[in-house]
Amino acid sequence: MTTIKQIRENSPIILNVSNMVTPQHVADAINFIGASPIMFDDIKEASDLVNISNALVINMGSSNDADVEKSIAAGKFANQKGIPVVIDPVAIGASKLRQDNFAKVAKEVKFDGVRGNAGELAFLADIEWNAQGIDAGNGDGDLHEIAETVAKKFDCITLLSGVTDVISDGSKTVEVKNGHHYFAVNVGCGDMLDGILGSCLAVDNSLDSAVLASSILSIAGEIAGGITDNLPYSFLSTVFNTLYQLTDEEITEFQKLG
């Protein structure tokens, strides 16, 4: 089973196709748990950067041709090298362009992890859900069914993040019930989780590693929320401080699984 100690000992290099909003938050989250981020901008670097990396994280929040092309190029190199690929289908239900771009990447690249909120993963699962842009929105679908359907569809691990995170490999499904409501008012926390998920899968590509990724950020938020009551902006900086200090013993102590 992967531990945060192993991440810090191995310091895996995580290559990121980030969106325009959150590259600093993502790089910080990866760095503060002990992995090493690289933010990837030019397709001409794809082969060289994948060659030195231990995982690739693709965030589809920036829907332009250049990002799609470099995502495909890096993803194919990552598949050839055998390193995990994580994708985040940001607001996929919001526009046909986002749907088409995801389909282009999915056609060419094998994913090891898909991380999204309920609305995004429900869209991939063809389950009706009232998503609201980048927010999960509202629906009455079964979150386990959504996560399991997407896992089976792409033969991967899914991490459906929300008030309760639901992680599935299509046959086994686990809930992580930690967290804090200030995650919802700080844009980019899901993107941070993408990077943490890539870091965990880089050490061990397994369902247990995805559960650890969810637990790391959720528990950090739970601890930070207790320190920054009614200070949602200060909450995020405290999350980063907590990620840096978080131990496996604290994870074991605070972790609430279902």
Automatic annotation (TrEMBL):
Substrate binds at residues 39, 188. CDD domains: THZ_kinase. Pathway: Cofactor biosynthesis; thiamine diphosphate biosynthesis; 4-methyl-5-(2-phosphoethyl)-thiazole from 5-(2-hydroxyethyl)-4-methylthiazole: step 1/1. ATP binds at residues 115, 161. Its EC number is 2.7.1.50. Keywords: ATP-binding, Kinase, Magnesium, Metal-binding, Nucleotide-binding, Thiamine biosynthesis, Transferase. GO terms for molecular function: ATP binding; hydroxyethylthiazole kinase activity; magnesium ion binding. Pfam families: HK (PF02110). The keyword Lyase does not apply. Its cofactor is Mg(2+). One of its GO terms (biological process) is thiamine diphosphate biosynthetic process. It catalyses: 5-(2-hydroxyethyl)-4-methylthiazole + ATP = 4-methyl-5-(2-phosphooxyethyl)-thiazole + ADP + H(+). This is Hydroxyethylthiazole kinase. It comes from Apilactobacillus kunkeei.
